[in-house]
Each structure stands twice: as C-alpha cells, then as structure tokens.
Design brief:
5 strands, globular, SH3 type barrels
C-alpha cells in the first residue's frame, strides 16, 4: 500500500499544492525525522518529490482501486 495525504495548507506554495487534493507521499525517514514529507506535487517534473512541512498534510487511507488510479502516469 502506498502513502497518500490530503493537502490542508498550501501556504507559500499555491502553485505547487492544491488544498483538498490527494498527493502521493514518498518514503523518506530522514525527512520525516525533521518534520518534513516528500510529496509528488503539481509540478511532477521531480519524480523524487519535494520536501514540505508535514503539518501541511493529513494522511488518508484509500481503496486499492483509487490508489492504482493515482499511481497511473498521466498521458
């Protein structure tokens, strides 16, 4: 199962994050130990994601079919 989060704040990042949208969170233990989350944001040019404060997101559980759809690369 992949980790997904919902953005609850896009303060200082309105072009990169949309409040209320689900984003994929990539594993990064070092970042998480510093209160950061590695997120694949709207830019999508950086497949390794970008670091954002974890407080900007809330973890969510999604049905497998939804996760699969979100993992499918966009045409």
């Amino acid at each position: 199962m992949n980790d997904f989060v919902i953005c609850i704040s896009n303060e200082s990042n309105p072009a990169s994050l949309i409040v209320g949208k689900a984003y994929r969170k990539l594993p990064d233990a070092d970042a998480e130990s510093k209160g950061l989350s590695r997120i694949v944001d709207e830019d999508k040019s950086e497949l390794d994601g970008y670091l954002y404060p974890s407080s900007m997101f809330v973890a969510i559980n999604l049905p497998e079919a939804v996760e699969k759809a979100l993992m499918t690369p966009e045409g």
